[in-house]
Each structure stands twice: as C-alpha cells, then as structure tokens.
Design goal:
Elements: E1 6-8, H1 11-19, H2 22-26, E2 32-34, H3 47-76, H4 81-96, H5 100-118, H6 123-138, H7 142-160, H8 165-180, H9 184-202, H10 207-222, H11 226-244, H12 249-264, H13 268-286, H14 291-306, H15 310-327, H16 336-363
Antiparallel strand pairs: 1-2
Helix pairs in contact: 1-3, 3-4, 4-5, 5-6, 6-7, 7-8, 8-9, 9-10, 10-11, 11-12, 12-13, 13-14, 14-15, 15-16
Length: 374
C-alpha cells in the first residue's frame, strides 16, 4: 500500500488564516513531518481542517504575499523580520502547491538571513532550519536533511528542555527521517521517548499523543513487531473515532493503517471491512478523484486481488485509473502502478476465460450420429 507523506499547520496558523493575517504567521508555524499515511504531524486535533483552509487560502493569497514581499523588501530591506516572514510564507505556499523547486531557494534564503540577523540559536532560525529540513526530506535529499534535523533538535533541547512541544516535534522529524533511511533501530528509541513525553505532559488521548502512538506503531510494523503494533493502532483508531468521528481524516488514516497491519498478519477478513469503510467515507467526504480516495481504492483493490476476487478488483483499479487520467494523465508516474495492476488483473482474467472456454469445449458432450438402419 502506497505511502503517503503529509504536512499540517498548527492551530495558530488556522487562527491567523481566519483573522486574515496569513503571511505574518505561516513562516513561524513549526512544521512536523509524519511518514506514510500513518500520521499527521505532531500538532493539534484541528490540524487537518487547518490544512484544508490553508490550501484554499494558498490559491487566493499567493499574489498578495508576493506584493507584501516586494513592498517589505523595498521599504524595510531584505533582512527585516517582516520581509523574512513573507519569504517563508511564500515558500510554505509553494511547498503546499507541490512546487518544491521554487520553495527551496526561499527557505534557504530565510535561513541564511535569520542566522545572520538573530543568530544560529534563535527560535526564528531553528524554525527555518526545520522548514528547510522537511522540504529536503520530501525532495528525497535525506543526507542533507539529517544534520539540519539534528541541529534543530539539539538546540531545542538546550533552550526549551526535552519535553517542550518544539523539541518533541523535532525529535519525531528526526526519527521519521531515520526510518525512511532504513535505520529503524535508531528511530525506535526516539519515537518511544516522544510518545512517553507526550503521554506524561499532554495525556493519553490528545492528538499529539495519538500521532506519536501511530508513528511508533508503524515503525514497529516495519520492524515486524506486529503483536506490539496492533494494540497501538487499535488504540489510535478508537481514540480518533471517539474524539473526531469515524469520517474524520485522522480516523480514516488510522483505519487504513490498522487494515494494512492486518493484511501483513494474514487477517484479510478483518482488513477488508476497514478498507471498504475508509473508501466509502473518502468518496463521500472528498470525492471520487481525491488522491486519498484513489489510495483507498487501490488498497482495497489490491486486497481483493490477493483474495482472488478479480472482478471487483478490476473494477476498482479501472475506476482509479480513470480518475488518475482525469487529474494527472496516464503518462504520469503516479498512474503507472495502477495501470500495471489493472493490466495484470485483466491478463489473469483473460487467461481464466480462455481456460474456461477450453475446458468447456473439452468437456462438452459429443453428439454421435446414429448408424444408418439397414
């Protein structure tokens, strides 16, 4: 099942958006990373709605932020705090639009300027370090991202202490980077420490804690510690459903993750209703062409294929491929796995139909003409 990586803004950013001061706070929002579909970042429970609001505002505010940036550069100078916040805000918008190559030089510019004007240990600088590191990870530049994450974590620990939210978010970012590098034995103790700290400081059912529960569970799954991972994922799913409802994006991601684990454990009968529920909810709330809906369709189709339910799997893969054709085109790399899966299933179905025809022809009764009577 395809991984998915997400970035979510904080409550402060959502409030800023609602208040119309988008550029002023975007650059200050700590950016936390969470791997796979498995988790949103270590932020508040309204993070997903905040992201939806941010994405809507992105389209309307890019021109305004660029105007502000030009005005600040002319009137206050390239290194003024207002200018740098506008630079970072524009970088965030471009990153969220998927224009990573355009966002990177802006993040680098902001970091260098903050280092020069307020010093390497200032909170503004450390937020800029983290923002650049997260972007580099998304770009697959893991070797460049790691020292930045380590730098931010060390500085937050020194200035704010080991249990501060910024420190724990930074620790999670580093651990998930290590996981993506395959260094699971290094990542696991960090994620365990993060979970323990969130539980102690925030409680067992707060969103930050549940995200940490999920991150640890998915790492344990990667390490084939399935028996330890399963109760963590069930805990996360139950808590998200109780807090936010069964159709909330966090609850649906948790359901998907539990289903993924159950498949690995050889429990397709338990996984299938979870995947069906996730797909139905995403179709209802996000629409047929949304990327998360398409991931759910592919996940369910793959499970049905492995169970030998080829007809329904073909239908789901076909529907997903049609949606991908509308959104990105069949030549896009994101459409290729679905296209291959659909072709494989159709080949199996065609082979089965041929075999059935041959068998039917071979087993059909033959009509033997009666001999002519004398």
């Amino acid at each position: 099942m395809a991984p998915d990586t997400r970035h979510v803004v904080t409550t402060a950013v959502a409030a800023a958006l609602a208040g119309g001061v988008l550029w002023a706070l975007l650059s200050r929002a700590p950016v936390a990373h969470a791997g796979k579909e498995d988790a949103a970042p270590a932020q508040s429970s309204d993070a997903a709605p905040a992201m939806a609001l941010l994405q809507a505002q992105c389209k309307m505010n890019e021109a305004g932020i660029r105007r502000d940036l030009d005005a600040f550069e002319q009137n206050r100078g390239p290194d003024h705090s207002d200018t740098l916040h506008a630079v970072s805000s524009l970088a965030v918008l471009l990153r969220n639009k998927g224009e990573l190559g355009k966002a990177e030089p802006l993040f680098r510019r902001a970091l260098k300027a903050w280092e020069r004007t307020v010093g390497p240990g200032h909170s503004e600088t450390l937020n800029a370090v983290n923002n650049l590191a997260v972007l580099l990870k998304v770009q697959g530049k893991l070797g460049e991202a790691e020292p930045l994450h380590r730098r931010a974590l060390k500085a937050w620990e020194r200035t704010l202490g080991p249990d501060h939210p910024n420190t724990l978010t930074s620790a999670s970012n580093l651990a998930l980077l290590l996981r993506d590098q395959g260094r699971l034995d290094e990542a696991e103790p960090i994620l365990r420490r993060v979970l323990e700290a969130w539980e102690r400081t925030m409680g067992s059912n707060r969103s930050n804690t549940l995200i940490a529960v999920n991150n640890l569970a998915m790492l344990l799954k990667d390490r084939e510690k399935l028996g330890e991972a399963e109760p963590l994922l069930r805990r996360a799913l139950f808590a998200w459903e109780c807090a936010l409802g069964p159709d909330h994006s966090s609850a649906l991601s948790a359901a998907n993750n539990l289903a993924e684990l159950l498949v690995v454990q050889g429990k397709p009968g338990e996984a299938e209703p979870l995947l069906r529920r996730t797909l139905a909810a995403r179709e209802r709330t996000l629409g047929l062409d949304h990327k998360d809906t398409l991931k759910s369709a592919n996940n369910l189709a793959a499970l049905l294929r492995d169970q030998g339910k080829l007809g329904e799997a073909e239908s789901l893969f076909g529907r997903a491929l049609e949606a991908l054709e509308r959104s990105v085109g069949l030549g896009h790399e994101s459409a290729r796995p679905t296209a291959r899966a659909l072709a494989d299933i159709r080949a199996l179905l065609d082979r089965g139909r041929v075999q059935l025809v041959v068998y039917s022809a071979q087993s059909a009764p033959r009509l033997v003409p009666k001999a002519n009577m004398p």
